[in-house]
TrEMBL record:
Name of the molecule in the record: Uncharacterized protein
InterPro entries: P-loop_NTPase
Length: 319
């Protein structure tokens, strides 16, 4: 394993412990993240523009202003930790999770060969706080670290974990608010999410919540659709939240058409595009049940569409 810093245990993250730190807060579908650091700052990256709508200046009290995840970011050498128990090994996605000395430890590897270790995060067992060690980036006169790398895939995994404790699920989908009505278009890569987003964005009264990853939640008996800061090919995101009204499963077609299917078919299509917390049995159970409830409660269709403005007009005519 890379790095030569031996770490055994760290104190929990607290308000008092981070008083000397700079910090920023993000809110994604109501899940609050606080990132605190001393020394090397986050790099100024062009893609940071996608996070602007998710920045929060909230105080750190309870209720709507709750911080769910507190992270201290350390830029420098990576800790060398003993793997006591493997929890989940996502080799294909270049990360793994294991248990070490009472911590849940995430290791993140570079996506390009030879896949060096890039980030080590020591989390509390409930994933609510932890220390993130990142390799420095040298831009200008002093080292920096990448907020984008910290938040994806690591922050995304934490988001999935916290959503799956009674809130909702992360979907591989396009989310659209059309005149205040939330529409989710679920589909694999290449199914047309970015294509349809580009068709929709020409219309007034439309907000693209995200064309790659969006969030479905449920509060007080109602389903809601929220954006994330992680765009696809249409490069559109929004921090807005709207009531979720309809579900579509996308595919390209020779004409615009809604295709009826059995509910079991919809389950299969949905589960292929869910981001599930396979590393935590209780959270996984919630996510599966939530997906079942979502399909049972809302109108769902398979949608074939053509790449022109008639696709949006067709959808608006079939509200």
């Amino acid at each position: 394993m890379n790095g030569d810093v031996r770490v055994t245990a760290l104190p929990p993250v607290s308000e008092a412990a981070t008083d000397r730190y700079e910090r920023l807060c993000l809110s994604i579908a109501g899940i609050g993240f606080e990132l605190a650091w001393a020394g090397a700052p986050p790099a100024q990256e062009r893609s940071l523009k996608f996070y602007r709508e998710f920045l929060s200046d909230r105080d750190h009290s309870s209720g709507e202003n709750e911080i769910n995840v507190r992270l201290r970011v350390h830029c420098g050498e990576l800790p060398n930790l003993e793997r006591e128990t493997s929890i989940f090994d996502a080799v294909a996605n270049h990360w793994r999770l294991f248990r070490s000395n009472g911590h849940a430890v995430f290791e993140m590897f570079h996506t390009l060969p030879p896949h060096p270790l890039m980030q080590v995060s020591m989390m509390a067992p409930d994933f609510s706080s932890g220390d993130v060690y990142v390799r420095p980036r040298k831009t200008g006169r002093r080292p920096t670290w990448s907020l984008l790398r910290v938040m994806r895939p690591f922050g995304e995994l934490l988001l999935i974990q916290h959503l799956s404790h009674g809130r909702g699920v992360l979907l591989h989908a396009l989310g659209v608010s059309d005149q205040g009505e939330g529409l989710v278009f679920i589909g694999r890569s290449g199914a047309g999410k970015s294509t349809l987003a580009n068709l929709y964005k020409r219309y007034k009264g439309v907000t693209i919540l995200g064309d790659e990853r969006v969030i479905a939640t449920k509060e007080e008996g109602r389903f809601w659709l929220s954006g994330t800061p992680w765009p696809g090919g249409a490069f559109r995101v929004s921090g807005h939240r709207v009531p979720l009204r309809k579900i579509f499963f996308l595919e390209h077609g020779s004409c615009n058409a809604l295709i009826g299917d059995a509910r079991l078919t919809h389950y299969g299509l949905l589960f292929q595009q869910l981001f599930l917390p396979f590393w935590h049995g209780e959270a996984l159970g919630f996510a599966v049940n939530f997906a079942h409830e979502l399909i049972a409660a809302l109108p769902a269709h398979r949608l074939a569409f053509v790449n022109d403005r008639t696709a949006v007009e067709f959808l608006r005519a079939h509200r």
